[in-house]
Amino acid sequence: MDLQLTNKVALVTGGSRGLGRAICLGLAAEGARVAVNYYRDLARGIDLVDEATDLAREIKQRHGSDALPVPGDMGKPSDILQMFRLTETAFGPPDVLVNNAGVWPTGFVKDTTEAQWNSVQQVNLTGPFIASREAVRRWIDAGRGGRIVNITSQAAFHGSTTGHAHYAASKAGLVALTVSLAREVAQYGIHVNAVAPGFMLTEMARDAIDQHKEQYLARIPLRRVADPAEVANVVVFLASDAASYMTGATVDATGGMLMR
Q1: Domain 9-249 is in which class?
Q2: Which pLDDT belongs to residue 204?
Q3: Residues of the chain with pLDDT under 70
Q4: What one-character-per-residue DSSP string does the chain give?
Q5: Active site residue 39
Q6: Which residue in 39, 167, 216, 245 is the catalytic one?
Q7: What's the confidence (pLDDT) of residue 43?
């Protein structure tokens, strides 16, 4: 099936590792030009530029598609605006926005401070809101359509039992944002959908999966944790013209945890 993504421009937040990396590779395999957003916080000694640069090089070598590392913290509105500017300068305006970046700290509600709560909401919910706002403003002003794919979670529907209530709440909010925004912008030819992954073998979740493996596997009818590429395939589909009659949907990619 031709997904008609050749030469489309895709901006993937949190694209340098984990699910984001798999999404970037999946989009590039279909011919898209990819802006690979990565996180940088020099004050804390965190800089994923090498990962993003290596991925951009791999995309070029494996798929012949253009890729650009784009720094930006989804918790900072100014960084999000800069991500769009850098993408537009290199490739032109994005056709696809994938809101994938997120944080997953551990802390039960009784131990969570307001600052910790707000930090999770800022990255996981407010960041996608700002990025989506910037995308739809551009598309509406230009009189063109576009596609947004939000990465939510099964926790948006099931909640958390392992100290991730702030994460679950942010992802539930993202589901509601997906539906509301889809209703607002459908008339402009803009499609907004979401994917709800279950447990994946990513850097963010690996320690928790190792610590609670049997507990997690017992909740998955397929009895295994996903490879990120399996979830990325769903994202790429929603980013494409093959999903032309879908908007406001949250697709279950949980190995059967949701079945909704």
Answers
A1: alpha beta
A2: 67
A3: 42-43, 204-206, 208, 212
A4: -----TT-EEEETTTTSHHHHHHHHHHHHTT-EEEEEE-EEGGGTEE-HHHHHHHHHHHHHHH---EEEEE--TT-HHHHHHHHHHHHHHH-S-SEEEE---------GGG--HHHHHHHHIIIIIHHHHHHHHHHHHHHHHT--EEEEEE--THHHH--SSS-HHHHHHHHHHHHHHHHHHHHHGGGTEEEEEEEE--B--TTTHHHHHHTHHHHHTT-TT-SPBPHHHHHHHHHHHTSGGGTT--S-EEEESSSSS--
A5: no
A6: 167
A7: 66
